[in-house]
Write a structure and sequence with these properties.
By secondary structure, the chain is an alpha/beta fold. It contains 22 helices and 13 strands. A six-stranded mixed beta sheet has the order 1-2-13-12-10-11, sandwiched between helices. Helix 15 links the parallel strand 10 and strand 11 (about 380). Helix 13 runs parallel beside helix 20 (about 475-495) and helix 21 crosses helix 22. The radius of gyration is 25 Å and the shape is globular. About 45% of the residues are buried. The structure holds glucose-6-phosphate. Glucose-6-phosphate binds near residues 217, 271 and 358.
Length: about 550
Amino acid sequence: MSVQLESLTSRSSWQDLAQHYDGMRDIQLRDLFAKDADRGTRLTAEACGIFLDFSKNRITDETLQLLVALAEDIGLRDKIEDMFTGKRINVTEDRSVLHIALRTPKTESIVVDGEDIVPQVHAVLDRMATFCNQVRDGLWRGHTGKRIRNVVNIGIGGSDLGPVMAYEALRSYSERDLTFRFVSNVDGTDFVEATHDLNAEETLFIVASKTFSTLETMTNAGSARNWLLSQLGDDKTAVAKHFVAVSTHANRVSEFGIDTNNMFEFWDWVGGRYSMDSAIGLSTMLAIGPDRFGEMLAGFHEIDSHFRTAPFDRNLPAILGLLTVWYTNFFNAQSIAVLPYEQYLKRFPAYLQQLTMESNGKQVTLEGHPVDTDTGPIYWGEPGTNGQHSFYQLIHQGTHLIPCDFIAFGKPVHAIGRHHDMLASNVFAQAEALAFGKTTEEVEAEGTEDWLVPHRVFNGNRPSNTLLAEQLNPSTLGKLIALYEHSVYTQGVIWNIDSFDQWGVELGKVLANRIIPELESQDPPPLDHDSSTNNLINKYRSMRGRSVQG
Ligand code: G6Q
């Protein structure tokens, strides 16, 4: 195994790619397909029921070989083993990164610091299942004896985006008699809108916070407690039946007033944005039930095993990750669009934004040196076909190169009329149009007036992947998420960055805490920020009817 001391760009495996890129830069997908009849079936990979067509990328077989050679040179295989065996690969927080343990079957073991963590994971899953069954069966009753009808998850970032996304994605598998709401923003609007039509007697709050100290979550949890008590005659004992917690911090949970018997724990080795399949997924389990939650975990695990064992040129997450490096670092692509053709995945791009950008938006290497290439691209997207009627214009004819991931399904969740064939025809058509475009000659041949021709030309050569799975269900969702988790890790390993810390979110939090008293104080506070921030604070105080310094 090679040790990563030399800079990325000075490696010969990198320079081989750079040289290869010089020859690839102007090659057209049209030509690649024209001279290679098998390309569309050869440059594909299939595993765990997910088919990946990566033939519409600006690559050749050689590109793939060179990318795989880079991964091997960097020691990706060993780095994967480091993650799966609990090495402290989150170096800046000195932590193992073991979200893969959250979906490891009972029969296997992962020993960390002399302790097998798999039984701990399953003990929490079993407690979650008991609780969820009680709520779903109407055995867990509210303080006044009424059945729980509403579940409100209070959390933010990794304690919100996964639960929201999974609830939306699996809504058709959910218990429709239960209403689910999600409160994340410290903006009071979020809480008010989530609760305005709910009866406190029938409402269960899940306070989901790894640290149980996050400003937004603790503020919303406090408002939730006040809201509940104001409806239930200020009887503090009501909290026990209407609040449960998900956290790593039992003492803070009990300080808040939640019985630690009603707490579901997880561990420091689960990063926030990698936690939706831990107890942070309690709302998901309440919605779809323990069995389907188990199916989701099994889906994750299938991809975990595939990532760990498959050769890189057949390895779906590795291929996706390496292609991202190819476009980010050689074609200077700034962003990747993720375009699910499945309305239930409407929050999937938002979820991926955190997973990808909080993980790989890093400027220094593991050793603290400035990186010598770009790192994590911007991820964004919307479900198709909606996006086609808005931003796809820029992807087709704009000046930015935006590699796309299309996600499509063979079978609809709801088979009505011809909808699904129309949906599927659109996804295939979009990938085709991006890759092959429409030439000047083709536009002219349609009898288009000369002046209009340039406007109607599609240059093509715009790359995309198409991921095709049979149907969206809990298992498929687990697979898709694991696919992106491991693609992110693949990228992070190549760039030699810490994909599991998030120091970039700290500064704003610290500054906000400093500004809060300056906004709330009765008397004009002495302000020693820059002149812009001072002025904004004073303007705000005036709007709130608070005095400002003369
Ligand atoms: C994720 C981040 C971040 C975190 C939130 C919520 O990887 O660490 O998004 O999930 O800040 O944190 P708590 O769960 O501790 O409230």
